[in-house]
Amino acid sequence: MILGTQYQSATFAFVLMALLQPSPGWSQGTTVKSDLYLQSSTAPDLKLHIRERLPANTKPAEIEQAVLFVHGATFGGDTFDLELPGYDWMTQIAERGMAAYYVDVRGYGHSTRPPAASDQPFARAEEVVADIGDTVDFIRERTGADKVNLIGWSWGATITGMYTAANNDKVDRLVLYAPLYSNEEPEWVAQMSVPGDLDQMKDVGAYRTVNAEKVAGIWEDQIIPADKAAWREEKVFNTWFDTLLTAEPAGADVVRAPNGVLVDEWEMRHARPVYDASRIKVPTLVIRGDADKESRLEDALGVFEKLGSEDKLYVEIGDATHFVCLEKRAPELIEQVQAFLER
């Protein structure tokens, strides 16, 4: 399903904490991968991990198009940079001559994981949006790009939407992949361990963990019919989860994530959006899998209709779930997004 409306539209100071030596890209030497650490502008003890992937034999300042990926509620940015043919999204973007980046926002992935000094959930969208601002300004300073393209997955779409609503002048195009925005979902509320009012959300704690078995169950619950081999490759799932574990302490078999997102979700699933999508004026693509139970049709169409952009497109990928970037329909997702970025 594709819906669209198209109209003809009429000195950042940062500290780069560590720069690892770039290693040759795995894909026949066509790209170069680097891991960077950026000091947060709002938290003195916070270092943000940024993955950079560039076309081989190219300096960042020579590249005029840059793309920043922002992960969702649980899994860090490694999702976008798997070294598996067909699922190597950042590599494919770099091979098209763009600079590709992901950032692990505070508390996630390879970025600083603040200690759970209290049981309060932390890292809500209104807090981590500063991490997107720092990263966008860094990319603009580092490359030849005046504006940055943003791709947010799930809760990452919430963060990138919130950032864009306040910074249209720094964003070229926005992709909301499997977005959450505003929808009444009593089923989700009933599943919470504290299904009371918002004040009780403080009892969920600072962090939560998930293991591979739990993630597989959530994923497979969305597959129709119940034939996971037809929708995804087991090798991809195992490689992805093993890659995520590289950001955890040695020997860990669970992924840890902050719980601030649960407060955001509480609001959004009570039809209370955490930002105003009507303030987004840049060209925007909303895209999801048709079997997605996290980003429901009503939610995705709701944000699409609310967008203030005169150039917007809605795309639905058939036979795909919330995890379509890791499924056999991933090429369709990547192709649709790339076509939007390049048009």
Strands, count: 13
Number of helices: 10
What is the oligomeric state here? single chain
Amount of beta strand: 15-25%
Order of helices and strands: EEEEEEHEHEHEHEHHHEHEHEH
Descriptive overview:
This protein is α/β, with parallel strands linked by helices and 343 residues long. The chain has a single domain, classed as Rossmann fold. It has ten helices and 13 strands. It has helices at 89-95, 125-142, 155-166, 186-191, 212-220, 228-231, 234-245, 260-268, 297-306, 330-342; strands spanning 2-5, 16-19, 23-24, 31-39, 47-55, 66-70, 99-104, 148-153, 171-177, 207-211, 254-258, 284-289, 312-317. The strands form two sheets. Strands 1, 2, 3, 4, 5, 6, 7, 8, 9, 12 and 13 form an eleven-stranded mixed beta sheet that branches. The relative contact order is 0.16.
Q: Which tags fit this structure?
A:
single chain, 343 residues, alpha/beta, Rossmann fold, 11-stranded mixed β-sheet, two-stranded antiparallel sheet, 13 strands, globular
Secondary structure layout plus pairing:
Elements: E1 2-5, E2 16-19, E3 23-24, E4 31-39, E5 47-55, E6 66-70, H1 89-95, E7 99-104, H2 125-142, E8 148-153, H3 155-166, E9 171-177, H4 186-191, E10 207-211, H5 212-220, H6 228-231, H7 234-245, E11 254-258, H8 260-268, E12 284-289, H9 297-306, E13 312-317, H10 330-342
Helix pairs in contact: 2-3
